Amino acid sequence: MSSSKTIRRLEVSSPVPADIDIANAVEPLLISEIAESLGLRPEHYDLYGKYKAKVLLSVLDELKKSEDGYYVVVGGITPTPLGEGKSTTTVGLCQALGAFLDKKVVTCIRQPSQGPTFGIKGGAAGGGYSQVIPMDEFNLHLTGDIHAITAANNLLAAAVDTRIFHEASQSDKALFNRLCPPNKQGQRSFADIMFRRLKKLGISKSNPDDLTPEEVKKFVRLDIDPDSITWRRVMDINDRFLRKITVGQGPEEKGMVRETGFDISVASEIMAVLALTTSLSDMRERLGRMVIGNSKSGEPITADDLGIGGALTVLMKDAIHPTLMQTLEGTPVLVHAGPFANIAHGNSSIVADKIAIKLVGKGGFVITEAGFGADIGTEKFMNIKSRYSGLTPQCAIVVATIRALKMHGGGPEVVAGRPLDHAYLNENVALVEAGCVNLVRHITNTKLYGVNVVVAINKFATDTDAEMNAVRNAALAAGAFDAVVCTHHAHGGKGAVDLGLAVQRACESHSKPLKFLYPLDLSIKEKIEAIAKSYGATGVEYSEQAEKQIEVYIKQGFSDLPICMAKTQYSFSHIPAQKGAPEGFVLPIRDVRASIGAGFIYPLVGTMSTMPGLPTRPCFFDIDIDITSGKVLGLS
Amino acid sequence: MSSSKTIRRLEVSSPVPADIDIANAVEPLLISEIAESLGLRPEHYDLYGKYKAKVLLSVLDELKKSEDGYYVVVGGITPTPLGEGKSTTTVGLCQALGAFLDKKVVTCIRQPSQGPTFGIKGGAAGGGYSQVIPMDEFNLHLTGDIHAITAANNLLAAAVDTRIFHEASQSDKALFNRLCPPNKQGQRSFADIMFRRLKKLGISKSNPDDLTPEEVKKFVRLDIDPDSITWRRVMDINDRFLRKITVGQGPEEKGMVRETGFDISVASEIMAVLALTTSLSDMRERLGRMVIGNSKSGEPITADDLGIGGALTVLMKDAIHPTLMQTLEGTPVLVHAGPFANIAHGNSSIVADKIAIKLVGKGGFVITEAGFGADIGTEKFMNIKSRYSGLTPQCAIVVATIRALKMHGGGPEVVAGRPLDHAYLNENVALVEAGCVNLVRHITNTKLYGVNVVVAINKFATDTDAEMNAVRNAALAAGAFDAVVCTHHAHGGKGAVDLGLAVQRACESHSKPLKFLYPLDLSIKEKIEAIAKSYGATGVEYSEQAEKQIEVYIKQGFSDLPICMAKTQYSFSHIPAQKGAPEGFVLPIRDVRASIGAGFIYPLVGTMSTMPGLPTRPCFFDIDIDITSGKVLGLS
Q: What is the pLDDT of residue A583?
């Protein structure tokens, strides 16, 4: 496709102003211009206002024969609770490649969860002079994908409880009569979707009237075991009071109460499906085979058994198209899907990466971010996302900060909202050197996938040259392809030019195939143990519940799936306080769950919160609108 | 503004095909062409894909000096559970005015709730050859307004429970320290929004350190009485199991459990605010003064007391702009807001009507629909919506069907999903004549507002000339300006040309000011009684709870608000089975609630469900996507 340039030069101030002030000071380019710079024509996208557009999946058909660009994943060392600037580096690197090194580049990042924007965390559009804009639209509804996920997830949840309710009060005959009602001529027919359940039951009849009473019973009774239901409701709000609730207490529900709860929407399996799907028809199938629980006889019950896989796809039909936005320097960004990395696989969508790789074409760059530390983010990028996408990365970046390395070297605890200890604000090379064990393990682990590893040292104003040299030496000694200091937060793309050049060399000199950490045909336990070993564990300990669930999944035929560890992001191990590169521990598996539609088994290592709460003074106190200009105030 | 024509001629088939087939057979015009036909330039709207656009409120400033078009409200007689084609008539009339009578016209209708689309009801885009298209986009996410309402409503709900939780476990000092934390220099400051609460408390200090301990206590402790909380959570899903739930059962919530429930999103007060607001600044103020419950000492606690009114406005900032769509014949439609008419005021937004009236200009027509029968829909249009908008309608339409009139005349019960009794399929003039008492009372009531009343007889294939003549005679005798048979369902705009001409005459010959049913300075009870009288009631009976609440609202200073009756749509009275024009009954008021932000008091007449359920075989069984074309299948 032909292309045009949309670069915008930034004027930077020092000290760096607040993120929202930087973002509001720049007039974004029309998104149609950004689209044009990628060679997209108006029929390839749908506008959502002036600064966002959904790039239609159909563009992939047209680009089938184009060559692929380079594919770079951005991971990080084990972070402090403040975050080490992984999104910022992803954005800054693209600004460098696009605006200073004259490369075609697309940033692929996750859509942030809206709930935490009003809680503690603030937005996720990068920071300083490396941001996605307009940052309010990025952090708020975007183009409605998470809302669609919430709707689809909760429609399925309502269908589950209501189906149990109707089955409890009706005879087989009454259920059949309602599910396949006779028309005016007295003839019954199956809805198309019902043939999926009939097939599963081994019934090949197409006329409802031919079913035997035994077959009618099998067809109409899902016989869901309420205690087996794993499908929870979701909401994109930090609402801790919904973590555990009892539903069905109204008089019309006749005492059919049940304990359940809400997760935050990005924890929905449907978010994972969106991130891992490869086409509309693939999404239809994945949504249909999502398992909500078991029948009383132990059979998995799917969305298609409930007759709802098609409706869920209809609710998700717009969400499957990634959203095009732009960086502060006018380079293109595709925002799509946002599963959490500690409870799901934590990577943006396959379809966005696939589109981007074709749009940048040969010699161009797609920079995609993996959530949290490389132990969970990059690992899942390789073993789950890349396995499903078939795409091969050439380079993996590990973002490191002096702050986090000092913490790993034994520095005092870093707590969000509390002032930093002086250890983090003054030179301490020994502490940095001690902390490099964490970086080294991330480098070693990442190299095993066959990619070139580039370390990006995200420099803060208080970091010294001696400290940065220590990191660089440790990284190169560990086999990193390069280790580069960058200042994109303070300087925009200009501050990441060296990183861009290193990444370019790393990609151009790469020639190895992608190697996975484990083949899929290992047993569930062997796969878990392979990942645990990469954490530094000597072994794995399964709870009784975990053992039981593994047996269930083997019996149900799900043992060929990849593994998605639900583990804290604050340590290689399961204990957040274990910094550095812990060794010799036994990894405890509390429970094992499955996202059959998304396509992975997820062992729970410790207790992960799937619904955040609001603090005493949430961010929302500062968020308001300027009535005159219509601009959003106080978003951070 | 200049304008161009976008008319599309329909080829109609007989018998009328399924709604989705008619809708899918027509290629919609680009919405930019529809916008251009109204004289809108690209800077006046934001595209949402190719067939939807949000018309920006700022266009009102530019049009301030334009003359107003005619303003017509569409109500109906008391309906059967099947609905009498009010939306269809609203759409068909506009197709007639725009495509056959060469008038500038805008249809203003409500956005349908997405939940019921997957339950029993199907969509709400009109029907037959009078529809809004694309009907799948109309019935599904549209441009995300209801999702924004859900998010804002539930953020407030989470803030309420979390605030009670934090107040319960912290001292005044700890709360103050968190709400107004010292900066690096040790100085505290109030967030802008906190000055609203300080003002309410009569504290005029601007430095937090100047507050006395007593003032600190008043400032930090909302002291919400959990039993007084009227703010519930919402979801746009038919999820009956959420009607009554217990929240806070997780161990971290330390036993702070509470009984509450979910309503469907369109029942949120924020939906009513969206429908009744007149500008961005007005919406900010309304959202801030929404009352969630009382303090233990009986003071109303508002969203601004919680510090969240600004954040709610930010979540609603795009939702305030109405969505432009089109009819099957290419006339423009503004879709905006969708409060239920039985539990809220049931009318589309004021801002959409205001924009439309300026866009059509002098001699043009704005046709806006009021929900359910004229007893609730038109009444609330006049006494609530028009009072807040300041707009004056010239003409009110009352849609009637032979089917519903026969029911009012004593015909057998009409039940959704069951075959119609033969009384409804064969000529029975006597039954029709007997039923006209219902129509006559709607005409008489509506005339009192000073508008010309036109009866639209929505003809079905089985209706006879004699039956229709009976209706026409009764309508004219009751003082209707005209009564016209229309066949827009079968013929599109062509079938409503006579109705269009009658409406034109009614508007052109109108000269009276708008008269309200009651002035605002009557007492709450006198206002309720004025409305009850219009229903045919001889009096009103208040429960103890209702009496108590009325006292509370008087004490809190809310007695000047208009009244929004929450009453069944199936009868003038509170008893759905009382058809025709019941008289001599006493209207029972079970409870009285208030939507202070939206701006009305709503007495509950009987028990209204605010959360629908799913039937044994919901519509979702038939809804799927055609993988090849991407088209939605099975939506009705």
A: 96
Longest dimension (CA), chain A: 87
Mean pLDDT, chain B, whole residue set? 95
Query: What is the Cα–Cα distance from A517 to A564, expressed in whole angstroms?
Result: 13
- Among A residues 199-238, those touching chain B with beta carbons less than 8 Å apart: 233, 235-238
- The confidence score (pLDDT) of residue B634 equals 86
- Domain boundary residue among B280, B313, B346? B313
Using CB atoms within 10 A of its CB, is residue A171 exposed (0-12), middle (13-18) or buried (19+)? exposed
Per-residue three-class SS string for A617-634? CCHHHHCEECCCCCCEEC
Distance from CA of B188 to the nearest CA of A (A): 14
Q: Do residues B304 and B332 both lie within one domain?
A: no
Q: Which residues of chain B have pLDDT under 70?
A: 1-4, 121-123
Residues of chain B in contact with residue A613, where contact means CB-CB under 8 angstroms, are: 162, 252
Same domain for A124 and A156:
no
Residue that finishes a domain, picked among A243, A277, A309: A309
pLDDT reported for residue A154 = 98
3-state helix, strand, coil in chain B (%, to 5): 40, 15, 45
Shared domain for A216 and A340, answered yes or no, is no
Residue from the list A162, A192, A243 with its beta carbon closest to the beta carbon of B613: A162
Which residue from B155, B614, B623 is facing A162, i.e. has the nearest CB?
B614
CB atoms near residue A370 (< 10 Å):
28
User: What is the number of structural domains in chain B?
Assistant: 3
- Stated as kind and residue range, the H or E segment containing A471 is helix A465-477
What is the spatial distance between Cα B609 and Cα B343, in angstroms, rounded to a whole number?
A: 8
Determine the pLDDT at residue B596: 97
The answer to whether the CB of B354 falls within 8 A of the CB of B387 is no
pLDDT of residue A1: 44
Asked whether residue A232 carries a pLDDT value surpassing 90, the answer given is yes
Q: Is A634 on the interface with B (CB under 8 A)?
A: yes
> Nearest CA to CA, how far is A524 from chain B (Å)?
31
Distance from the Cα of B38 to chain A's closest Cα (Å) equals 19
Q: Which of B237, B176, B236 is nearest to B207 (CA)?
A: B176
Q: What's the CA gap between A623 and B5, in Å, rounded?
A: 43
Residue B317 and residue A632: Cβ atoms within 8 Å?
Answer: yes
The mean per-residue pLDDT over the stretch A411-431 comes to 92
B481: tokens are 């300006």
Choose among B49, B178, B318: nearest Cβ to A616: B178
CB contact under 8 A, A307 and B620: yes
Alpha-carbon span A75 to A178, nearest angstrom? 53
Cα gap B149→B154, rounded to integer Å: 8
Scanning every residue of chain B, which has its alpha carbon at the shortest distance from the alpha carbon of A194? B621
Position A630 scores a pLDDT of 87
The rounded mean pLDDT for chain A is 95
Taking the Cβ of residue A263 and every Cβ of chain B, the question of whether any pair is shorter than 8 Å is answered with no
pLDDT digits (tens, 9 = 90+) for A456-501: 999 999 999 999 999 999 999 999 999 999 999 999 999 999 999 9
- Using CA atoms, how far apart are residues B330 and B332, in angstroms rounded to an integer? 7
* Residue recorded with tokens 């992960």: A608
Task: Identify the band that residue A372 occupies on the pLDDT scale cut at 50, 70 and 90.
Answer: confident
CATH number at residue B333: 3.40.50.300
CATH number where B247 lies:
3.30.1510.10
Give strand pairing partners of A327: A132
Cis peptide before B15 (omega within 30 of 0): yes
Distance from CA of A310 to the nearest CA of B (A): 4
B629 occurs within a structural domain: no
ipTM: 0.95
Place A258 in a pLDDT band, splitting at 50, 70 and 90. very high
Query: What's the one-letter identity of residue B207?
Result: N
At position A118, the amino acid (one-letter code) is: F
